[in-house]
From TrEMBL:
It holds the Pfam family Kelch_KLHDC2_KLHL20_DRC7. PANTHER family: LEUCINE-ZIPPER-LIKE TRANSCRIPTIONAL REGULATOR 1. Keywords: Kelch repeat, Repeat. Coiled coil: none annotated. This is Ras guanine nucleotide exchange factor F. It comes from Callorhinchus milii. The keyword Repeat applies. GO terms for cellular component: Golgi apparatus.
Length: 271
């Protein structure tokens, strides 16, 4: 999409490219968009990157190390030359004991699967597998919120992962009574010192509520703004300049929409 012209433009593709899919993960780092996994008829575990300048896809299938298995609805973020893939495993007896975090070193073309140093180290906490959660980066940490945990259902767990130490820690709010609560299929972005979270599912109820997490004070606050989207699940969101752009999703998982919404973060109003 050309944001300056507010117009969509389909890019012609030549050469190898990912097959059609849904429930995949994407992120951008230094002129490339990286794509992992998703679902077509079955789960996928292929890994691609797209050059914005060259308009060309490249399959990254020669990496060393332990790559992720087939993943559906994982998260993917980038920080200082490393990609972090979390969640999305299809639960089974095999996956129960695994922490679903993989790290891909772009320069070295190498995968590493994160694991606890010792199974008896009680201080080494880590989140269990989930999907349809949100993942953002603030300063030197990745923050994971919510998601759907098989058997248990929607989660309201809030975790941070310190990149340098490769350690997980639960994020505690100084005001536990106010929070978005257990939810999944929502969106989240970071702007300045806040994480903005919109919509999703709480139980079986679609949501249109809007929240901000303050990284300085460790508190949640609810944003009240008129004329915004109705209930949305399964949508996506990015930051562009001083705005949060929300695309797609639907009132539920069975009704998709192609609407594009813009929330001005400086004035806290929908445009």
């Amino acid at each position: 999409m050309d944001i300056g012209l507010s117009a969509w433009r389909q890019l012609p593709q030549c050469g190898p490219a990912p097959e059609e899919r849904c429930k995949h993960a994407c992120c951008v780092f230094k002129g490339y968009m990286y794509l992992f996994g998703g679902r077509r008829q079955n789960g996928l575990k292929d890994f691609w990157r797209y050059s914005v300048v060259q308009n060309k896809w490249e399959k990254l299938d020669q990496a060393e190390g332990t790559a992720p298995e087939e993943l559906e609805e994982p998260s993917l973020v980038a920080h200082e030359g490393v990609l972090y893939v979390f969640g999305g495993m299809m639960d089974s007896a095999y996956t129960q004991g695994k922490t679903p975090l993989w790290m891909y070193d772009i320069g070295a073309s190498r995968w590493t699967h994160w694991h606890k140093l010792s199974s008896t180290d009680t201080e080494k906490q880590a989140p269990i597998n989930r999907r349809e959660h949100s993942a953002v980066v603030f300063e030197a940490k990745m923050y994971i919120y919510g998601g759907y945990v098989d058997i248990k259902g929607p989660s309201q767990e809030f975790w941070s992962f310190t990149f340098e130490l490769e350690e997980w820690r639960p994020v505690l709010s100084s005001s536990a009574e106010i929070s978005p609560g257990p939810r999944y299929s929502h969106s989240a972005i970071v702007y300045r010192t806040g994480m903005y979270l919109f919509g999703g599912l709480v139980g079986l109820m679609e949501q249109s509520d809007f929240w901000r997490w303050d990284f300085d004070s460790n508190t949640w606050s609810r944003i009240k703004a008129r004329c915004g989207p109705q209930q949305l699940v399964g949508h996506s969101a990015v930051v562009y300049q001083d705005s949060m752009l929300i695309f797609g999703g639907g009132r539920n998982h069975k009704s998709a929409d192609n609407s594009l919404w813009k929330f001005q973060l400086t004035t806290r109003s929908w445009a």
